[in-house]
Specification:
Length: 271
């Protein structure tokens, strides 16, 4: 084994020249694969392991080892933080082996390559949308796989992330006194992201914005929805104090999108 490892070592950093690639041609696909596994488990540079798996794909393209090496390329790239390369390898696997037992894992890696780049609410949310699409594919196409449950949890977190972005923008508009613009953002959260943790605060901010605009019926109705669904929330306590300070109550009033939402979600009136 020591001789095999020594013979398969690729020296240096950066691009490997033809002589180094030619060196691997003396070994079987299985031997190269095992060296790649060894590098993944023991090296601090997972990208080095990818070299072995990619060489299997080049030298033995139609072998069983090439199929296994392709999914390992995706994993190795992801472990190294090379997310674009991870997506490329995972997608090639799905294109070439759509019915394979590892297809669920390939789709999961594809989704993770987007999900693991979601790190800041302030960033562009294109990655979050891509992550949601990829995770949904795992959940819908491979519901019985071991990756489905993890995908559901990550989907919920990514969904909450999008709602948090809407809240961030809405709070900015509210602080700047652009109340109508803030209402539009908070409405998106309440209507499209109502299952997220952002909804109670969105309802409170709607109370504040509508009070500032002098739309008292809407403010009271937002408070009513908040009180019915999140009465123990500190956001409701805040909304209740603000309404009471204006001599108002948290109850559905008037005829707006909020009263329609109240009738639908609380009274069960869908017509």
């Amino acid at each position: 084994m020591a001789a095999l490892v020594a013979g398969l070592v690729l020296t240096g950093c950066g691009n490997r020249d033809a002589a180094q690639r030619q060196n691997l041609e003396r070994f079987t696909a299985e031997e190269i694969y095992k060296r790649g596994e060894f590098e993944l488990e023991n090296s601090r540079r997972p990208a080095d392991a990818v070299i072995y798996f990619s060489e299997i794909e080049r030298l033995y393209p139609y072998s069983e080892w090439a199929r296994r090496a392709l999914i390992m390329q995706a994993y190795g790239h992801h472990k190294a933080g090379n997310y674009e390369e991870a997506r490329g390898a995972a997608q090639r696997f799905l294109d070439n082996f759509p019915g394979d037992d590892e297809a669920a894992y390939a789709q999961y890696l594809l989704a993770l390559s987007y999900y693991d780049q979601i790190d800041d609410v302030g960033r562009d949310q294109g990655l979050t949308f891509q992550a949601l699409q990829g995770l949904r594919r795992v959940i819908e196409d491979y519901p019985d796989s071991e990756y489905a449950r993890s995908s559901i949890l990550k989907f919920d977190l990514a969904f909450d992330h999008l709602a948090a972005k809407e809240m961030e923008i809405g709070r900015y508009y509210l602080r700047q006194g652009h109340y109508a613009a803030s209402v539009n953002r908070f409405r998106v959260v309440v209507e499209e992201f109502q299952t997220t943790t952002q909804t109670p605060e969105a309802l409170l901010r709607l109370v504040e914005a509508y009070l500032a605009l002098g739309l008292l019926n809407e403010a009271q109705t937002a408070g009513a929805i908040l009180g019915h669904n999140f009465q123990s929330s500190p956001f409701y306590q805040d909304a209740f104090r603000q309404l009471r300070g204006r001599g108002l109550r948290a109850e559905a009033q008037g005829d707006s999108w909020l009263t329609a939402l109240y009738r639908q979600t609380i009274q069960g009136q869908w017509l």
